Hints:
By secondary structure, this protein is mainly alpha-helical. Helix content is 81%, strand content 2%.
Amino acid sequence: MSPRLQSAWGWSKRVLPWLLAALVLALVARQARTVNWPEVWSAVQAIPLGQLALAAFLAALSYALYASFDLIGRHLTRSRLSVGRSLGTAAISYAFNLNFGSLVGGLALRLRLYTRWGLPVSSVAKIIAYSMVTNWLGYLWVAGVVLLWAPPGLALNWTAHWASGEFVLRAIGAGLILLALAYVALCFFSRQRQLSFREHQLELASGPLALLQAAMGGASWLLIGAIVWSLFAGRIDYLDVLGALLMAAVAGVLTHVPAGLGVLEAVFAASLGSLLPVAEVLAVVLVYRATYYLLPLVFALPAYGLSEAAARRRANTAPQEEALA
């Protein structure tokens, strides 16, 4: 790559995320000014109890599936920590991650919990890395299929020409699928089984394990989409809901807003507001937030306290056992 192209690429990587973040935040501000919140509250109250129960059940399945991502890292790092403690640590961290951001839940809390159970920092870092790869590998192929099959309406509405916008989105979808396939191919055929980054090394997953990562990661995103779709009670096609969710996820990451507060609502309202009244769309998103973000946190907070207490007891009894030996 020529120096000029390298300079242009470096500039675009720095500027484009900020431009997209500004665009999303402007959308949030505009949406907040136009919402009839009493109407939204009435729509929330109109959601049947059965739909709420189904959404909660799917959310529990989703958390269990996401927590199992850490078992891949547990296997590859040859960790001796029990399966139950690995799943519990991952589930608690995920609830904190969604509500307080990745630095708090995805990194700091998970690091603290795992090291309290005796895992070295290097192993914890690898477990986190494998979980992230599994999650975003699933995102790549699911988002790629959605963009190829049913490009989200929000992006198409913002393009000057529908046909050209659809072509661009389908091209992006194909590129995402190719990236996912490239990772799987690397795991199957690469002779270099260690990936190096600065002073860190990460063992490359085997080919079958890479396929498992893709399946688990994709199933996780599909299941989250099913939670939101169930709250719409079939009034909006599943692929439309999934497309809005995938866009909101990326927008939340780029804007760095904790829990994607406002971003999630704005993207859903902008992309699905032409299919249902905006008040009903926002009602579903708020209930989804309560079901998938806040309710698990209610359980994660005391679970974290119990985990800390158990780790302290373990630390206090270890010296006594050594003295008796």
